[in-house]
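To the structural biology subgroup,

Please find below the input and predicted structure for Pyridoxamine 5'-phosphate oxidase family protein, which we are adding to the shared reference set this quarter. The sequence is reproduced verbatim from the submission form. If anyone notices a discrepancy with their own records, reply to this email rather than editing the shared folder directly, so we keep one authoritative version.
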Amino acid sequence: MPDTALDQRYSDDHATAVPWEVTQEELATAGVYWLSTVRPDGRPHVTPLIGVWLDDALLFCTGSQERKARNLAANPEVAVTTGANALHAGLDVVVEGPAVVLRDEPSLTRAAAAWLAKYGEEWRFEVRDGRFHHASGAGVADVYRVAPAAVFAFGKDPYSQTRYAF
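Predicted structure (tokenized):
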């Protein structure tokens, strides 16, 4: 369990810290995440993607020649966000930490099963040579694991900012 703290500076007077279990559920059930990386020249790069929350980490995949993979090769630190696109309802979550390529085939097999369970047949992957191979033959991808260094949950009714430290 992470250390959990409500930041009262950014929270309503009657707000309480969002329980970690609630934040984990948001991470597990989100359909789309936004990955922020840094280009080699220092400019930000943000892209939507799909992923799974598995074994206390966020997993996503990308081809080795895509911009995000090239950015990660130079700087593995990322922020991944998800949440509700509403001002007065829902929970927004930010995960910060290094994105590390996952090559362990038993872990990748579990990850492929999680992708299939969450997103259906469109996202069926076969695991070979430490990578995801799209079942349709459409491509090969590396899987990245982001074990959080910190997670932030932003509640909106009431407004709150909860920080989880790992």
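Summary notes: The longest strand covers residues 91-102. The two ends are 8 Å apart (CA to CA).

Regards,
Lab coordination
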